Amino acid sequence: NSYGGIWLISSSYNTVSSNNISNHIFGGIYLSKSSNNQINANIGSNNGPVDFVGGIFVGDIILVMNSNNNNVSSNNVSKSNFGIMLAESSNYNTVSGNIVSNSKGGIVTFLVSNNILSGNTVLDNNLGIWVYQSSNNMVKNNTVLNSRTYGIGVSSSNNMESCCNNIIYNNNLINNPTQAIVYTDNNIFNLEAPIGGNYYSDYDTPEEGCNNINGDNFCDEPYVFSSGWDNLPWISPDGWLPRGNTPVGSNVQINPDAHVSILYNEVTTAGDTTVTQSTTNPGPDKDDFMFLGNYYELSTSAVFTPPVTVCINYDDIACRWREKRISRYSTGVRVEQAGMM
C-alpha cells in the first residue's frame, strides 16, 4: 500500500522485467522524461484508487509520460484505473503483446503521437482502447473483447489537430456494446486489400449485413459506426493472418517442392498447396505414354481462377527422346496449362 511502485525519472536504457507490482496508490510502473527502456513481463494489479492528483493522471499499472522510444511488452495488468497509459508527449513508443483486463480503461493515449499499439489482448474493461487527443498512432493486431462500453474509440477536445491521422486496422473487436466510435475526422480504419480493416463480431453474417459474394473474405459493404466507417471489414477473426503458402492475389507463384513451381493466374481465397512425389504410377496406365521416373500429385485448398501454370524440373540426361515431344499426363485433375523446364 505504498504511494508508488517502480518510478523511472530522467532515466534511460533500463530494463524493468518480471516484477509483481500491486496495491500502490499512485500506480505500478511510472516513466517520466525517460527513453529507450524495456518494460516487459511484469504482473500488476490493484494499483491506484484515485483518478487525478495535481492534474496528472495516476492510478495506472504502467504510466508513461513525456517519454519516448520505450518498449512496453508482454505485461499482464488488471484491476486499475487505466491499465497502460501513454500521456503528454510520449512519442514513438511500442506497446505490444500485453494482457490488460478488468480496469476502467484498458490502453489509453493522451496527447501523444507516432506510437504503435500492437498485438495486445484487452478484455473485460470499461473502455477497451481509447485514443484521446492523439495523432499519427497505429493500432493494429489487437483483440478487444467484452468491454462494458466501447471497444476502440478516438476522441478529442476542441483542438481537432491533436486527434487525427490515427490508423486502426486488423483488430478483433468482439462482444463490445459499441465496437468502435470516433468523435473526430481523418482517422483510418482500413488499408487497401489484402490488408483490409478490422473484424467486428456483430457484422460477420449475412443476417447482420455482411455478405462475401466475391469470396475475398471481406464483407461486401462497409461497417458503419458513429462518425466513422471501415470499408473492408473481415468476415472472420484474424482473417488477415497468412493461411497456407498460397496467398490471395494475381500472378501468385509458389514453389511447394524443389522440383515444382506453380503460377496461379488469380487466387481469390488463400490456402495451402502441396506436392506429393512418388515413383509409383497412380494409374490408370496409358499405353501411348512412357513415364520418366517420378509422379507428382498436386492439391490445393486455395480458391483460384484459371489458368494455372505448372513447371516441373527434370534431368534431361535421362531423356533419350526429343524434348519437344515430352507431354504431361494428368489423372483426376484438370490442368489448364502446363509446362516443363
UniProtKB/TrEMBL annotation:
Transmembrane segments: none
Residues of the Periplasmic copper-binding protein NosD beta helix domain: 62-204
InterPro entries: NosD_dom (IPR007742), Para_beta_helix_rpt-2 (IPR022441), PbH1 (IPR006626), Pectin_lyas_fold (IPR012334), Pectin_lyase_fold/virulence (IPR011050)
Organism classification: Archaea, Methanobacteriati, Methanobacteriota, Stenosarchaea group, Methanomicrobia
Pfam families found in the cross-reference section: NosD
Protein's recorded name: Surface layer protein B
Gene3D superfamilies per record: Single-stranded right-handed beta-helix, Pectin lyase-like
Organism in which the protein naturally occurs: Candidatus Methanoperedens nitratireducens
